[in-house]
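question for whoever is on the cluster today: can someone run the full assembly for these? two chains, 578 residues total. i dont have access anymore since they changed the login thing
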Amino acid sequence: MSEPLISARGLTKRYGDFTAVDAIDFDVAKGESFGLLGPNGAGKSTTMRIIAATSQRTSGTITILGRDPEEHGPQIRAHLGVVPQQDNLDTELTVTENLFIYGRYFGLSKKFIRTKIEELLEFAQLEEKRDVKVDALSGGMKRRLTIARALVSEPDILMLDEPTTGLDPQARHILWDRLFRLKELGVTLVITTHFMDEAEQLCDRLVVMDKGKIMAEGSPLELIKAYSTKEVLEVRFGSDRNKEIAPTLRAMCSRIEELPDRILMYVEDGEALLEEILNKKLHPTTSLVRRSSLEDVFLRLTGRTLIE
Amino acid sequence: MNSGISVTKIRSFGAIYVAEARISAMLKWKSVIAIVAIGNPLFYLIAIGIGVGVLVNENSGTSGTGGVEYITFIAPALLASAAITAALDEAMFPVMEGFKWRKLFYAMNSTPITGPQIALGVFIAALARVAFTVICYWAVLIAFGVMSVEQSWDVIPVTIFAAGAFAAIIIGITAKVKNDDYFMTVLNRLIIMPMFLFSGTFFPLDSMPIYLQPIGWISPLWHSTELGRYFSYGYPLSATMLTVHFAFLLALLIGGFALANKTFTIRLTK
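^ ran it for u. tokens below:
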């Protein structure tokens, strides 16, 4: 691996008594798509803000593009594209005006920005909205514009904090498609998310965070292999009977998780296990065999679900 | 890596880029700004200058206003007050918007632009709006024959300077506001309004009881008004008072920037 673009060691951020980020280590390589997965309050956004050179760490070290953000904030920010959790577009200005003024903050020439805007409007599929006030755009369009805005300076690293939170499924898929294209173009992406499907779709490698700590690290597939089984059988017996039957089920496979509404059974062959259960005349009201996901990894690591 | 980005260039011009953005937002309101800039002096001249002025002149002559017509006496005060109102608009709202309402400053700060550059950019844009307002107001005063061009042109830079000092301190104070529920009401009704009434705008400050005069002494509007009178019609001011007025406004300007630079940096890098 060549010199990493981002490298953190013992990175810590405290707000008074509260430790938001607790001595984490990670590296991000050039061209990689790196994810921070975890529930709300895990410390993902704080980590992102430290990487974005807009929040100062309490202790530990971090270099971004070989520089320390405490000393070289503007130099680092000159080569980052930041998509914050909440869009902070100027809603009174039009789509192109937003791209234009943002490009100016990087000291780019008016001519360069004008050419770049055409390219970005096409990329964000906003050509028809170019002279529309941001106020009038849908949530998905605003998000795409925020991403386009972050790309106006041709950044080395694109940072996306919860890129699709609050969007409807169709808007999410359009956005994923756009981000996937950036990934193919070799743009280094750093993404936080609490959606496991998003992490699986977009991240080459990720860290699972909880309460400011990194719980595990690897590619989505590696994590699933290491912390879960190939398949998961989900069974429901109704909330009263779940508790009663759980001990019987526990004896039938290596691991089960009891959730308030259902029981998850971790196995290599889900169908075979379901048949076994039916043979015992346990009769679940519903059952589902699926492949393990990062949600299962998270459950295993923290004992909690991602979205609570 | 985009080779067109020069951090050295941004270090020099960052505030200008912020001002550019502020001015393009302001231009969305250009007709409102222009109507206020021209309409405001017209209304005041007609209502106070002609209406109240006739009453004052008929009853007490020019003895209460140091030997000049009432309209001559209040014109520089109205000019100073319009400049300060414009400064307030372009200092308070953008800062509330930037930190709280639309978080625009956080977007600016995710680029190489720094907190102090944002504060300076907002200030430059406010100064542009103030300059426009002052020039329009002054032109109306000239057109009505209230001031003469030769004698009063220097009231323009002086009034802009005073309103700029006020803008700086408002930028600094507003940056500290986390909860805007009461801030603007309190600022407008309990600070701006009394300042307008008790700063020697409509009558000389020393005609008020001594215990009310301190309101004027700490009011940027009074200092601006006194200077405006001095430069527009030769109102008598001692060298000491002239220095005091400039020094007070300069202190406000420097203090405002010191506060703004510190607060902007802290709030953006938490």
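summary bc i know u wont read the tokens: DSSP finds eleven helices and no strands in chain B. Chain B has one domain: 13-268.
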